[in-house]
Amino acid sequence: MARVLTPRAEDFPRWYQDLIAKAKLADNGPVRGTMVIRPAGYAIWERMQAEMDARIKAAGAENAYFPLFIPESYLKREAQHVEGFSPELAVVTHGGGKQLAEPVVVRPTSETVIGEFMAKWVDSYRDLPLLLNQWANVVRWELRPRIFLRTSEFLWQEGHTAHATEADARAYARKILHEAYEDLMATVLGIPVLVGLKTARERFAGATATYTCEGMMGDGKALQLGTSHELGQNFAKAFDISYSSAEGGREHAWTTSWGTSTRMLGGLIMCHGDDNGLRVPPRLAPIQAYVMVVKDGEGVGEAATGLRDALRDAGVRVALDDRTDTAFGRRAVDAELRGYPVRVEVGPRDLAAGNAVVVRRTDGSKSPTAVADVVGAVRAALEADQQALYDQALAHRESRTVEVATLAEAIEAAATGWARVPWSAVGVAGETEANAQGVTVRCLLRADGSVPDSEDEPDLQAILARAY
């Protein structure tokens, strides 16, 4: 396999690019910074979408859709927001062969346009909370693109809500953070994440608080996998999202926004991938079991088809590969590259003994298994390997995270992993110093690991790392 992929230890970025290409997950688009997501990659994204969408709906939000084009004047209404996004904006000045009376921005995010319509739809306290989500593409002009991690156009969900009180808004932003984002990443993607508060320097433009899910990648760097924001009344005042209270007064709403994107695909690759390719956690995998005919022989095709059907009837997402005109070794390599959790190999020799071979992608083990026992063996392997991938990722994070006492020690530790350091030893000045050396404060945590309300709380811990 070293001939197929650059070893991770040798050149991690090259390994990442090799894997995306060889596993046929995505390709670069014709415009710099864009990407084409190929069917194998998009199938994983669809599974992420389905799992995330179910959690968002369980939290009470409803899906809607808002325009791709946003009047430039909308962004200018919230000064911090436009200032934060200005370097990344794509602006359309001509349409239909004519110069537009007002330039329009290709959405970098939708707080402004959704705020405009929230103002129209909210009149009374009875209209609150208003809980919306949309699945869409967004454009942020990226200077240093990397497929899935940073592209000028990417796919995501963005939630936007309006509430009667600050407490309700905060509770909902955290509900999404934990019950949708953290839960999906831990239980489906198999990625252990630290959930914490961003510093003011790292906060979303226009927000009053930003909460984040941070995952450690295979090279020890951090990746921000999802964020949830309290927007206070900033956007409500800019767009007059106001309501008549139960007492008869007129009040501005409190709003939130939150999002996850195709960046999760990049995180999946870099967290679980190995030198043989991708390893997809079974609960996420579009194909959980891949039944392969090793070569033609009496009854082999029928046995493989029967196993495929039995696995499907047992609720396993399964595919059959009976392309015996292609060398088995090549097909097996492709299956490993794509990270199918389990392969069931059916060949004449094993079948003559009443067996098929169950191959587990997570540890590479190969087990001759009686045909009648294959379904049970596959289901047990899927359950065990979901947990195994999470446990491996957690052990990796713990082994590459060090407790330090000073900023200098934290910056040094960030060369190979994460540093946990008292926030009081860093502060705003120390954060600026760390940034100058390519190190960022990923999040702030309380001593017990819970999420603080403010960076001014005493005894907070900061996580410092290099990041994608």
From TrEMBL:
* MF-aspect GO terms: ATP binding; proline-tRNA ligase activity
Record's catalysed reaction(s): tRNA(Pro) + L-proline + ATP = L-prolyl-tRNA(Pro) + AMP + diphosphate
Which class of enzymes does this protein belong to?
ligase
Q: Name one GO biological process term.
A: prolyl-tRNA aminoacylation
Question: Which keywords are on file for this protein?
Answer: Aminoacyl-tRNA synthetase, ATP-binding, Cytoplasm, Ligase, Nucleotide-binding, Protein biosynthesis
Per UniProt, residues of the Aminoacyl-transfer RNA synthetases class-II family profile domain are 32-281
EC no. given is 6.1.1.15
Coarsely, its chief localization is cytoplasm
Give the UniProt entry's GO cellular component terms: aminoacyl-tRNA synthetase multienzyme complex; cytoplasm
InterPro entries in the record, alphabetically?
aa-tRNA-synt_IIb, aa-tRNA-synth_II, aa-tRNA-synth_II/BPL/LPL, Anticodon-bd, Anticodon-bd_dom_sf, Pro-tRNA-ligase_IIa, Pro-tRNA-ligase_IIa_arc-type, Pro-tRNA_ligase_II_C
Q: Indicate the transmembrane segments per the record.
A: none
This protein's domain notes: Consists of three domains: the N-terminal catalytic domain, the anticodon-binding domain and the C-terminal extension.
Known HAMAP family for this protein? Answer: Pro_tRNA_synth_type3
Q: How is this protein organized at the quaternary level?
A: Homodimer.
The similarity annotation says:
Belongs to the class-II aminoacyl-tRNA synthetase family. ProS type 3 subfamily.
Role played? Catalyzes the attachment of proline to tRNA(Pro) in a two-step reaction: proline is first activated by ATP to form Pro-AMP and then transferred to the acceptor end of tRNA(Pro).
Descriptive protein name: Proline--tRNA ligase
Q: From which source organism is this entry?
A: Micromonospora yangpuensis
Q: What is the lineage of its organism?
A: Bacteria, Bacillati, Actinomycetota, Actinomycetes, Micromonosporales
Question: What gene name does this entry carry?
Answer: proS
